[in-house]
Amino acid sequence: MPDFAHELRHHPGLVAGVDEAGRGPLAGPVVAAAVILRREDCPDGLNDSKQLSAAKRAVLEGEIKARALCWGLGVASVEEIDSLNILWATMLAMTRAVEALTHDCAHVLVDGNRCPQWRWASTAVVEGDAKCLSIAAASILAKEARDRMMIEAAAAHPHYGWESNKGYGSARHLAALREHGPTPLHRRSFAPVAQLSLL
Questions:
Q1: What is the domain extent for residue 42?
Q2: Model confidence at 197, in pLDDT bands (50, 70, 90)?
Q3: Which residues share a beta bridge with 73?
Q4: What's the rounded Cα separation, in Å, for the pair 111 and 88?
């Protein structure tokens, strides 16, 4: 289970955790979250969002927002993903998430193997969402925010099953792409969309 060891190792002051959701889907934005937890008031049960049930994530999202010192979200649009590529769009979303924090942080812990080029001292932590409580909290907020966006988008584009697949390339999603073509929320730079010769 994640703990505060990484946060305590890197700085005695305010340390933010950052994670993203939505790098792999064929449709929708990439969303990042940044969280500075209160070490004396941390919700129980924080973990990598992928290891939690939807019901547990929803409960923890509310607790994180209520009890964290501050949190922020950053979004990179489909247009930004297609123009920058998914890596740099993800870095942009992470930067926006940290910029949205209402408290400045002394250090940022980033899930993954590289950090954005930004003004904050930062450390990349591979599988950080399973190791660092701050990153785990960010992973929950990012996933919950993006899932809501895709469920809302599914109402306007009902063929693709986004309410369940959240934009990932499920069999239903790919079949709908072949039949109906891409929507404005599809990532034209992603091969499964481009290779359908529908553009």
A1: 2-149
A2: low
A3: 33
A4: 15
Overall average pLDDT of the 132-137 stretch: 98
CB count in 10 Å sphere of residue 191? 9
Asked whether residue 53 is assigned to any structural domain, the reply reads yes
Domain membership flag for residue 177: no
Tell me if 41 is assigned to a ligand binding site.
Answer: no
Q: 111 lies in a domain?
A: yes
- Does 183 map to a domain? no
10: its two tokens = 């890197």
Nearest to 115 by CA among 144, 107, 80: 107
Ligand-binding site membership of 19 (annotated): yes
Confidence of residue 199 (pLDDT cuts 50, 70, 90): very low
Whether residue 82 is annotated as binding a ligand: the answer is no
Whichever domain contains 121, its CATH number is 3.30.420.10
Would you place residue 10 in the very low, low, confident or very high pLDDT band (cuts 50, 70, 90)?
confident
Strands (E), the chain: 15-21, 30-36, 70-76, 107-111, 122-125
